[in-house]
Amino acid sequence: MKAINKIFICLVLTALVIYSCDDEDFAGDNVYSGSSFVRFHLVLDGDSVPLEGGFNEYGRQTVDAYNHKLIKPGKIPVVLTSANELDGEITVDYTTSKTGDFTGYTQSPVGQLTFSRNKLIDTIIIDISERWDTSQVNQLQFELTDVSDPSVQIGSLNDYMPNNKLTFSFGKLTTTCTMPLNRIEIEGLAGESFDFDVDFPKGLFVSEVDGKNLFVSNDGFDYTLTQHPLKNGDTKVTYTFTLDENINNDDVYLESTISLFEDLAYVPQGNKTLQIVKPIKVERDKSTFPASHFYDLNNPYYRTYLEMWYYDEGDAVSEWKSSSQFTYPVIVGADDPNGILYSDGGTPDDTSDDIYHHAYKLKFDSPNAGRTTNAFGMKSIFNNEYTDADKSPGFNIAEALEFYPKDGNNPNEGNVLVVSQFLTISNKEDKAYTIGIKGSGTYHKVSEELWEIILTVKFTNDELWGGTQEVHYHMYNSRSYQDPELLDVKGVIPVDL
């Protein structure tokens, strides 16, 4: 049998029978030999979102009604199934009737679909250009009505679900936005610039976003934000930040924050605030490379170990609570003054694939996409927390700790700072909390195999703590540590989100 007939057979999906497309199935009784037919073939995933083409998940049946809750175009596939090779083009006419007043969409193609031996699927596309009124019923009803080839039947070969009609409803629309970056450092030179994005995971309407101010800011220096051009179909807005004054003073710390408005039509989720920092600069000897003692890229599941001073409400005592976090280097560019070459990609004469690690900074992250690590043991500080990265990105911290060797060059000890920033943690009801963190401590070499960090972190959120909550930690690069001495202060008490 020719390859084209395999394609025909792979497309056969009625409400009663699903044919497999393995080669061994093209033998004997498994070969489709019935009448030709054309029908709607809209298949939904587990979240009631259409599968592109409708053929991506075995066992999911077609639907004759769909509730569209997305900004992105609605796509309704129509499929022709035949046991014979097609001779020329076949057209299928369809009608559209409408309920409701919504007109902010375009439909293509209008009224007629085309099929051929190399095109067995055609798609009705509903492009949406504006927000609809969800207090009204707005629907489109499609019906296949005529085929240019009389041998092709309209609808599947069953009475159970013929799929010759389909209702497309404009459902309740939920739109969100987020900021992928929560912190960036600048040198402080006038004219310095960088780009950052605001993401709209469920899409955006250009008319609602283009040229609009999405931010509330707290400015510690002068800058300009310039929005990049937008077009239909975009799912992010890119801005260029340009510093308008010279703040390049090594002894001064300055910062500005840019936060998403809470009352946008696009509900902020995940990171809501970008912190722009001009840090203090100190002289440090890169050869000390303190960050390297707290990660191991040969072990994808390497972690550092925490002891957190914690109040056990069951026993009514404060005690050390153990946890851990996945720890990684901070990747920087070749021009970063704190960068140390990690890999030249096996091409010493080609620097384009070189990888540099920050000599003094650590990152907390998860080895699994979309998941989170337990940065600073925070999952023990909160109850009812959402742990997926899209809802609680604050459990992963791109720049968490920074080391300052004693006297700038001591290889065995020094001070450590928590990189000051804002973290977003959400509860399981999707309420997001913005939590400021900062902190300081010391680090030292205990033995050839063991390094210790002693640290106090301050978490700030008025709703959760009425201000600031201090948490005490010991952190180690290995399990081979002795229990820390008990403290004479009360440990942290978990709070409900």
Proportion of beta-strand residues = 35-45%
Shape: elongated
Spatially, the strands of the biggest sheet line up as: 22-23-25-27-28-29-30-31
Number of strands: 32
Range of helix content: under 10%
Walkthrough of the structure:
The protein has 497 residues and is mainly beta. Helix content is 4%, strand content 42%. The protein contains four helices and 32 strands. It has helices at residues 3-10, 206-209, 378-381, 462-465, and strands spanning 37-40, 42-43, 62-63, 65-68, 74-81, 90-99, 105-108, 112-115, 121-128, 139-147, 153-154, 165-170, 176-177, 183-185, 193-199, 215-218, 223-227, 236-243, 254-260, 267-268, 273-278, 303-312, 317-332, 339-343, 355-364, 382-383, 397-405, 413-426, 432-445, 451-461, 467-476, 495-496. The strands form eight sheets. The protein has an eight-stranded antiparallel β-barrel with strand order 22-23-25-27-28-29-30-31. The relative contact order is 0.09. Residues 1-29 have low confidence and may be disordered.
